[in-house]
Amino acid sequence: MIEQPKTVVDKIPPATFWMGVILVVAGVISLLGLAAIIVQIIINPEGVALMQWLTEKVSPKGFYFQGYVAKTPFQFNVSSALQYIFLGIIGLVIVNIFAALVGKFITVGAELIQFAGIQKTEQPVRKKEAE
Question: What are the domain boundaries of the chain?
Answer without folding.
Answer: 9-58+76-114
